[in-house]
Specification:
Cyclic Phosphodiesterase, Chain: A, alpha+beta, 386 residues, 5-stranded antiparallel beta sheet
């Protein structure tokens, strides 16, 4: 009997918790901007409402007496353990426009990962490692090549990938008393792969399907990737956002906060030294969506929620969250880190870490295709930075 190898998205849908209602067929980013009267402060408030509300929901899921397990990504599990699953390749090809974090944001993200590792002793090193061969009985190898469903679902619908003979899809990986070394329980996104998805054009496609989209969109690539150079959107107030599958650092669109970022790299004029934040990150997403659609490409994003986040970690086993006490410590640590961020990073110009990010700093948008889920794939074009 065939069983399903599901993306974590199928079990962990990212819902829009801002309260904005979308109209069929419209540019989905217009709706929030209109709801907020094109006001940066109101846009920031809705982004904040989304992430605070979602964190509260996820905290309840971690701490409830009905907790069952964290959500382990079966694709990532296989990719990170080639000895158990030799030859496995992620079949889900995508097309995106990524914003790459500048050096000071990568420094902050790396520090946040180090803080999280303190409560995840069974962590996965960012350089990668493999599970012991003795785990094979718990995770049988796929006997046939993983395939992608041929029929395309409607926009914003979750997709699953059907492999032909995976005998097990539930990932209850636990470390036995005599296991040495321990299973790596927390996968850390390498800093060179970190990204913020400004626009997901399409996902879970075959290489040929992505190639067809690329042929249509390639002429627009220079304008798309360079868009932030003349349309600069600031992100501020980093905070850990989390769920049962992953942990990310999220940001809010700026709304009049003091500018903290270093000046643009010369030679070029600092034409944004004085800014009013009227052009927000949500405006940037709106414009990218509109340009891609005008180029003749239908956009099939998994979500269009008011969120600006970089994934930091994903769970690979249940070990670090197996008991109520461990889960409480995990939540307490996240709350502690978020308090530290607000106290030591927000609005701090002279601190060790800088929490402001102007999209386009150091490099423009990265137009990218391929198996991108965990920072992979290849770049078609990288826009000019400032």
């Amino acid at each position: 009997m065939d069983s399903k190898l599901e993306s974590t998205d199928a079990k962990n849908k990212l819902e829009d918790l801002s309260g904005v209602v979308l109209k069929p067929g419209e540019n989905p980013y217009h709706a929030l901007i209109d709801t907020c009267h094109n006001d940066a402060a109101e846009i920031q408030t809705l982004y904040s409402t989304h992430r605070v509300t979602r964190n509260a929901q996820q905290k309840e899921k971690f701490l409830t007496s009905e907790f069952k397990e964290v959500i382990i990504d079966p694709f990532l599990f296989r990719l990170e353990n080639p000895k158990l699953f030799p030859g496995f390749a992620d079949p889900r090809n995508c097309m995106v426009l990524w914003a790459r974090p500048p050096e000071h944001i990568m420094k902050l993200a790396s520090h946040l990962q180090a803080m999280l590792k303190e409560l995840a002793p069974n962590r996965q090193d960012p350089r990668g490692s493999s599970l012991m061969d003795g785990c094979k009985s718990n995770h049988p190898l796929p006997s046939e090549r993983t395939q992608i469903p041929k029929k395309n679902p409607s926009p914003y619908e979750m997709r699953t990938v059907e492999p032909s003979a995976l005998r097990e899809t539930s990932f209850h990986v636990r470390t036995s008393a005599n296991t040495n070394p321990p299973y790596p329980g927390l996968w850390l996104m390498p800093t060179h792969r970190m990204h913020l998805t400004a626009l997901e054009v399409d996902h879970s496609r075959t290489p040929d399907e992505i190639a067809a989209l690329l042929a249509t969109l390639r002429p627009s690539a220079p304008a798309l990737t360079a868009w932030p150079y003349a349309h600069r959107a600031r992100l501020v107030k980093p905070m850990l956002s989390y769920d049962l599958a992953a942990i990310a650092v999220s940001f809010l669109p700026a709304a009049g906060e003091e500018v903290l970022s270093p000046r643009p790299v010369l030679p070029q004029p600092d034409d944004r030294a004085s800014r009013d934040d009227g052009y927000t990150y949500h405006h940037l997403r709106r414009d990218l969506f509109g340009q891609v659609r005008e180029a003749g490409v239908d956009i099939v994003s998994r979500y269009v929620v008011p969120s600006a986040h970089i994934t930091l970690c994903r769970f690979l086993t249940q070990d670090d969250h197996a008991s109520p006490e461990a889960r409480q410590r995990w939540i307490n640590k996240i709350d502690e880190i978020n308090a530290w961020l607000e106290r030591e990073v927000w609005d701090r110009k002279d601190g060790e870490f800088l929490g402001e990010w102007i999209v386009g700093q150091e490099r423009g948008l990265d137009f990218r295709v391929g198996p991108l889920w965990y920072g992979g794939g290849r770049s078609i074009m990288l826009g000019e930075g400032f």
